[in-house]
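pasting for ref
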Amino acid sequence: MPKFLRVLAPSFVALAALATAGSAIADAGAIKHRQAVMKAVGGHTGAIASVVKGEVPFKEDVKGHAHALAELAKIAGKVFPKGSHDGDTGALPVIWEKPDAFKKSYGAFVAAADNMAKAADTGDMGQIGAALGGLGKSCKGCHDDFRKKK
């Protein structure tokens, strides 16, 4: 092997290792971000549910939670980039293996979150409760098919 290749070969190996490590770090960042977005979705949903169930008297806050949830729903579709399936994640590989099925399920979530925001605008607890039921079904549908069982 020529001398220049013997000198450069370790550098190429080091660069390849850095590229792989960089990818793993990026994947971990994407997973952490995804988990934060989904935790926020759960937080707003839980806050709405506590009002609907009559556990707390904060009816005036439902609208804010519902609109935040509708915005988070739009973001949620972007938090599953390719390559973010390895690591500490509850996301199943089927998300990336069957993107059309995942997109359909995600679309149901966005529609349910939009419906929740519209119901919250009315202030009618009956409509809000019904919208919460639809939202819960959309979340369950996605979790049943695309999330690891706990």
